[in-house]
Design brief:
It is a single chain. By secondary structure, the protein is α/β, with parallel strands linked by helices. It has 2 domains: 154 residues; 134 residues, Glutaredoxin (3-Layer(aba) Sandwich). It has 13 helices and 7 strands. It has a 7-stranded mixed β-sheet. Helix 1 packs parallel to helix 3, helix 2 runs antiparallel to helix 3 and helix 7 packs antiparallel against helix 8. It starts with 33 loop residues before the first helix and ends in a 26-residue tail after the last helix.
Length: 335
Amino acid sequence: MRALTLLALLSASAFAAEKPGAPAGGGGDKDRSPKEVAIERMLSERDSPDALAKAIAEAKKQGATDQALLEARFLFLVDRHDDKAIAAMLPEFLKRKDEFKLDDSEIFAVKEDWLAVVEYVQALDLLEKGDHAGFKQHILEAFWLSPRQGAAFAPHIDRLRLKETMDALHFNFDTALAPLDGKEKVRLKSLVEGKKGLLFLFWSPWSRECEDTLPDFLVTTRELQGKGIAVASIMSEDSPDMIAQSRAIVAKLGDHPPGAWLIDDKKDPLNHMFRVQSIPLMVLLSPEGRVLFNGSPSEAELWIELAKLSPGIKRPALEGEAAPAGDKPVPKREH
């Protein structure tokens, strides 16, 4: 089986250091000062912007430094993957760049870690502006200053490389793939003709997450097909064992599950073309063959792009979820 590695996930813990003298986590509040308790709560707050604002106000009241307040806001946004909001903090980071004092920090153990984060924020700002050369310059400087924070920097490089590759790609719908049921090959042009787009799901019967999310995929497929979007699942291997397992899994979905169920081409695989590194993964194509989305089914951006193709599309409520309100895309639940 071809290797499908999971990309590193950006997390706040990649930035937080075990700073000497910092309040130890897990201890009872009675053993620490009100200031230490307030600062720890502020740095660990993740519930909502309002909850963070209250935690910051309390920490400030107890004497937390402005540097610590900035760090708390930064970690909150990192945890939420809100790159745009992080980039908007750049003026604050640049203002403090040369005034930084280790004694004022709650998460940085050495100055280089702080300088690396300043470079990181600059890189995100330039990425938001479409300056890829500037992004590369600052993200590499961030690596140089603080290699141990590389787990936080690397996903942005992966996403940029993926975007550049997808922007340059023009998909040929003359491609024909074998169906899972063993019948004649299906030319993808026949699926997209008269449609507003084509959505691929790359999956494997050897992935528990893929199997668990297939019922949700059916709900999504019915919604999209009703709004003019063709859907096809792509099973990445054609070994007899995998085909047999895939057929058994799909059979549980009913006699005629919606969408096309196809097997990737061994000679010129689509999973190589679309740089599939983790599954399940979805790729959305325009009728002209442009790649509009390439990423996890859980990303809200998928529904934003789908709505651009067909304004009537809304993210359907899945099992255990309330129906989404209004037209705002609702991220898919994690399994």
